[in-house]
Design goal:
Chain lengths: ~300, ~280
């Protein structure tokens, strides 16, 4: 019984770390335009809309975070093998992984923007200096939280995978959850803030992203501030729930009977199915159709 | 026709010659494995091929909208096919590997449920963001009515878009994709783990307990690698975006299954041969 209580405590801590990691990951990717909306940041100058938005998308969020978390976890593992204290080892590993992220962000921004030279898009050195460090700070939080939760899973909960492999797996899952949940909010709600609320962006408006702020030109730190309020929080809740519920059903129920953990997993899927259906029906009833049914079919 | 609605016609065609070549190549790889290791290695390779096929088939169910979905221009989850499938499948592999001591059946089912849970939570949060963050209801661009709920779709598509969000059929497709991907990844891991646990102690002259960390790590790395191989292959088959099982692109799955079987057989053969002494 005691080890189950201990396991629940670790599970709660891992869930909290995952929530922070998810939120930081989405905010970092939005500041760097690394999710799918990067296509619009890249398209805008080609349509004649020059901007000061950072764009470091040369890989999707899941493989990028898989790399950085695996690197952080691998280095932390190596430091621990050299008899470093676990906390110090994780911090050092994550700092080094964050430097790799910084190099990646710098070369990606310069490379992507240089390809737009023929459309007159300049590379802003002040943007490079000010935004890169902000993405690195957010990336450090995301990598540190993910590596720490992997360390807890490995040492306290006894998962058989070594730390670097756990870092790779949960890094990819972190990127998948963060990009799936956070991308639409950044892409539709922030980059196309000039379009109508409550409707998708018409395809004809592609590339016409918002480039001006309250004072002066909009930059990516403004985008991180805006999307952290809903997109970032939702991504954090999403990844936090994934980690917490996966660990919780295993720690509590697998010790009693492995089939209980499976049954609880099925019940969790059914509960989320009901919630999803409720949200879908609620939206249809509350917002109503855009056009009459017959007109839409025609 | 808009850019999103335009579909590559040639991409959907199934080439019988290529399918036959793929099947023959798969059989050749299996025969090579049977020649070198008819029992342990062959069993492991069959597990790897079945797992790879499950991943390839499961990826077709995952509703992925890519960049257009991020602007509410097309339905689906706003990320890449391979990335989302890998995220779900690897989360399943994580759970399945944890349950490895309980036997292959429980481990594979646990892995499937882990993948399904990730997709259920993610799909629910996608609809949450669309509805409560952006005020946009779900609408499919490929069918007039949701095949499960019967909800009409056309009047809920906003002007100038191909639909948005995740209709219920896409949610169900996502969960099925996660289940199959998680189960497939875990099956690959379990097949290779059993092989390495049996073969490595003899090769390295160590006890079974000492070889466990190496066996677990190597099987885990191969499982992750094979997962990415199959997910990326399927992403090429889908060519960009897919709404789920109701999407016309879903019918391309036979081609993907042959490709997944062939690629898994080749990669699995390498994974098997590293522990089988060659008679040279």
């Amino acid at each position: 019984m005691e080890h189950i209580v201990f396991g629940i405590g670790i599970t709660a801590l891992a869930g909290a770390l995952a929530t922070v990691a998810g939120s930081a990951e989405d905010t970092e990717s939005n500041i760097g335009s690394q999710g799918d909306p990067n296509s619009q940041v890249q398209l805008a100058p080609q349509m004649g809309f020059l901007h000061r938005i950072f764009n470091k998308a040369i890989a999707g969020e899941p493989p990028a975070y898989g790399l950085w978390c695996c690197l952080g976890a691998g280095l932390a593992w190596a430091f621990m093998a050299m008899q470093f204290n676990a906390v110090l080892a994780i911090v050092l590993g994550c700092v080094l992984a964050t430097f790799v992220q910084g190099v990646y962000a710098t070369t990606a921004y310069v490379g992507r923007t240089a390809s737009l030279a023929k459309f007159g898009q300049p590379i802003y050195v002040d943007i490079l200096k000010s935004i890169t460090t902000v993405t690195m700070a957010h990336a450090f939080i995301a990598i540190f939280c993910t590596v720490t939760l992997c360390h807890l899973i490995n040492t306290a909960l006894g998962h058989p995978f070594p730390l670097p492999l756990l870092g790779l797996i949960w890094g990819i899952a972190l990127g998948a959850a963060g990009s799936a949940t956070g991308n639409p909010y950044y892409g539709k709600e922030r980059q196309y803030q000039n379009q109508k609320f409550g409707a998708g962006v018409p395809i004809s408006a592609s590339g016409n992203i918002v480039r001006y702020a309250d004072a002066g030109e909009r930059n990516s730190i403004d985008n991180g501030w805006f999307t952290s309020k809903i997109g970032g929080s939702a991504s954090g809740i999403c990844f936090g729930m994934i980690v917490f519920l996966e660990l919780w059903r295993t720690v509590v129920f697998e010790a009693i009977n492995p089939w209980y953990a499976i049954i609880v997993g099925v019940l969790i899927i059914l509960i989320f199915t009901v919630i999803d259906r409720y949200i879908e029906v609620w939206a249809r009833k509350t917002y109503g159709p855009y056009t009459a049914a017959k007109e839409a079919e025609a | 026709m808009s850019a999103v609605a335009a579909k590559p016609q040639a991409g959907g065609a199934i080439n019988p010659t290529a399918m036959v070549v793929g099947i023959i190549l798969t059989l050749i790889f299996l025969a090579i494995c049977y020649y070198f290791s008819p029992t342990l290695g062959m069993t492991a390779l069959i597990g790897v091929v079945v797992g790879g096929v499950l991943i390839g088939f499961g990826t077709h169910f995952v509703p992925v909208g890519g960049a257009p979905a991020a602007m509410g221009q097309a339905p689906g989850i706003a990320t890449g096919v391979a990335m989302l499938a890998a995220g779900a499948g690897l989360a399943g592999l994580f759970g399945g590997a944890w349950a490895a001591e309980q036997g292959i059946v429980i481990a594979v089912i646990t892995g499937g449920i882990g993948g399904g849970m990730l997709m259920a939570i993610t799909c629910m949060m996608v609809n949450f963001i669309y509805v409560f963050g952006m005020g946009i209801p779900s609408a499919s661009g490929k069918v007039a009515k949701d095949p499960i709920t019967g909800d009409t779709q056309a009047e809920f598509k906003s002007q100038g878009t191909e639909g948005h969000g995740l209709p219920f059929i896409s949610f169900v497709g996502g969960v099925i994709g996660g289940l199959l991907g998680g189960a497939g990844g875990t099956l690959i891991y379990m097949s290779l783990l059993n092989l390495y646990e049996a073969a490595l102690p003899g090769i390295m002259n160590v006890t079974a307990a000492q070889v466990m960390p190496i066996a677990v790590s190597t099987a885990g790395i191969f499982a992750v690698g094979l997962f990415l191989v199959n997910a990326v292959l399927t992403a090429y088959n889908i060519t960009g975006t897919i709404e789920g099982p109701h999407d016309p692109k879903f019918k391309r799955w036979p081609r993907s299954i042959v490709a997944s079987a062939c690629a898994s057989a080749l990669c699995g053969l390498v994974a098997v041969l590293i522990v089988v002494p060659l008679p040279i």
